[in-house]
Design goal:
Layout (H helix, E strand, L loop, with lengths): L2 H18 L8 E6 L4 E7 L4 E7 L13 H17 L6 E3 L8 H11 L5
Helix pairs in contact: 2-3
GO molecular function, one term: 5S rRNA binding
Subunit structure: Part of the 50S ribosomal subunit; part of the 5S rRNA/L5/L18/L25 subcomplex. Contacts the 5S and 23S rRNAs.
Protein name: Large ribosomal subunit protein uL18
């Protein structure tokens, strides 16, 4: 499968899932982006088009962590969950952004659940 086919396939999946997933101020959307070397997660209020909270493997508190392996992703998920709970957010809508729910994406979701987020 060529790179163009992979990109267009992911875009189709992303568009299809975004049609069904929307976040509000009470129940924001947990959006994940996974690159080859890093992982990013943010809570988004789609009704106000604002980012409520963002955490990544490149954040200041994650300087000692190397790369974006499964354990790093689990740590990022825990940090996101803890910060969300501190802001009073307990439930979210999970948006995997066209990525498979496997490996690093699953680890981030599990870390967020460990911190107390419900989705």
């Amino acid at each position: 499968m060529s790179q163009i086919d992979k990109a267009s396939r992911r875009q189709k999946i992303k568009d299809r899932s975004r049609a069904a997933v929307a976040g509000t101020a009470v129940k924001p959307r947990l959006c994940i982006y996974r690159s080859l070397s890093q992982i990013y997660a943010q809570l988004i209020d789609d009704s106000g088009s604002t980012t409520i909270l963002a955490v990544s493997s490149m954040s200041k508190e994650n300087k000692e962590l190397k790369g974006a392996g499964v354990e790093v992703c689990r740590t990022v998920g825990r940090q996101l969950g803890e910060k969300a709970m501190a802001k009073g957010i307990t439930t979210v809508v999970f948006d995997r952004n066209g990525f498979r729910y496997h490996g690093r994406v699953k680890a981030l979701a599990d870390g967020a659940r460990e911190a107390g987020l419900i989705f």
